[in-house]
Specification:
It is built from six helices and 16 strands. It is α+β, with helices and mostly antiparallel strands. It has a single domain, classed as Beta Barrel (Porin), CATH 2.40.160. Strands 1-2-3-4-5-6-7-8-9-10-11-12-13-14-15-16 form a 16-stranded antiparallel barrel. The two termini are 26 Å apart.
Length: 415
């Protein structure tokens, strides 16, 4: 990753602060960060967060849970403002890289209605806008079982937000539309076009309810091996008149395929009791797994100390079946059966590398200590159990099954 980009991002507060000193016209600087160490009890696979190229093994690493974010807000006048946010974290290139996570202009139409244009947060989770702000969350990291379902965190486009209070209940409705892309490990890029999202939130005292839905058309740059397999399936399907092979080839491609993500959440912060839960379902018309996931977190505050427990699950709901016949009927050319065997093995290899993989459950215990103003110290232990194959772990060695214990300590701060 280009280190000059990181240096530029880290220099942003100084640059904007200098501008502010010269012209106090409404510039506001804020930021957040997490310094963390993460480790596991196994060297047979790597634990990571979504979209990371590598993760943690037995030796503690800072790469999994550490980040730094800086944000600048500038009020042009009473109704128009601009916002930019940069984030440094470990990414799909296996290095600490800088990204422009937000860059938008916001127009306040009235007290209830506003419009944003540019790069904005994609509202698909309960904590979409602050999932990377460790200080704003009870847990050390969002449960990977649910938050790995969508690789995108922002959208290039526009949104409209309407907020109104009905007595003691405040309702917020958000509509967004645009396009986005994300870099995945293995030099793959996945993108979504014609992406629309709706986000509905109701807040009543200590209770927050949320519902969201996103729809779009997804495409992904695929490997040479997958392209070769898809081409071979089509050639064999046409040549040997096996219609299911052509259909399987279409199913395996991820090119402008429909995809949807539906989610719901509940939050409660009442007296000393803290509860948060989300459920989400992903569907695609491609080889990408249809999934459902959920988590539930409960904690209790003792002064500045908040111990908590989390249970999370990810299930595979569906994926393309291997419809390549094991052999060819009598009367077919002699080369037919060996060709089918090779294609069937190729589809099986693809399955072992991703299709139908990823199911796992995690039980976590942790504690948060707000020991100083705008700073919190956290510790969390996760017991991760892959349910099908190798779960969400990276670089698994032969024979890896789990379970794996993951430990982490983190210092969260905002400024």
């Amino acid at each position: 990753m280009n280190k000059s980009i990181i240096a530029t991002l880290l220099a942003l507060p100084l640059a904007v602060s200098t501008a502010y000193a010269q012209d106090s016209s409404g510039v506001r600087i804020s930021g957040f960060g997490t310094g963390a160490l993460t480790w596991t009890d196994s060297d047979q696979a790597e634990f990571s967060r979504p979209n990371q190229a590598s993760g943690a093994r037995k030796n503690p690493t800072t790469g999994v849970d550490s980040n730094l974010g800086l944000q600048a807000d500038y009020a042009i006048n009473s109704w128009l403002s601009v916002t930019g946010q940069g984030l440094v974290r470990k990414d799909a290139e296996d290095d600490f890289g800088a990204e422009l996570s937000w860059a938008f202009a916001k127009a306040k139409i009235n007290d209830q209605l506003s419009v944003r244009v540019g790069r904005i947060g994609l509202p698909v989770f309960m904590i979409s806008d602050y999932r990377n702000v460790g200080y704003a969350n009870t847990f050390l990291r969002p449960p990977v079982e649910l938050y790995s379902q969508v690789p995108f965190s922002s959208i290039d486009g526009a949104d409209v937000t309407w907020q109104h209070s009905f007595g003691d209940t405040t309702v917020t409705a958000q509509l967004a539309y645009g396009r986005t892309e994300a870099h995945l490990s293995g030099a793959n890029t996945i993108e979504a076009r014609q992406l629309s999202a709706v986000n509905l939130v109701a807040e009543h005292g200590p209770v927050t309810l949320r519902f969201g839905r996103a729809d779009g058309k997804m495409s992904m740059s695929t490997s040479t091996s997958l392209n070769t397999l898809v081409g071979s399936l089509r050639a064999a399907g046409t040549g040997y008149r096996f219609a299911q092979l052509n259909q399987l080839a279409s199913d395996l491609e991820l090119n402008k395929k429909k995809a949807s993500f539906t989610s719901a959440g509940l939050g409660l912060d009442w007296n000393n009791i803290v509860v948060q839960t989300e459920y989400a379902k992903r569907k695609t018309d491609s080889y990408v797994n249809d999934t459902s996931a959920w988590y539930a977190m409960a904690g209790y505050r003792f002064g500045k100390v908040l111990p908590f427990y989390i249970h999370s699950e990810l299930k595979i709901d569906g994926y393309p079946a291997n419809t390549v016949p094991a052999s060819c009927p009598a009367g077919y050319p002699a080369a037919c059966t060996p060709t089918m065997a090779a294609l069937r093995a190729g589809v099986s290899t693809l399955k072992n590398s991703g299709i139908g993989q990823g199911e796992q459950t995690t039980d976590s215990i942790g504690v948060r200590w707000d020991f100083y103003r705008s700073m919190a110290l956290k510790a969390q232990i996760d017991r991760v159990r892959p349910q099908n194959g190798t779960g969400l772990f990276l670089a698994p060695q032969a024979g890896f099954k789990g379970p794996v214990t993951v430990g982490a300590v983190a210092l969260d701060f905002v400024f």
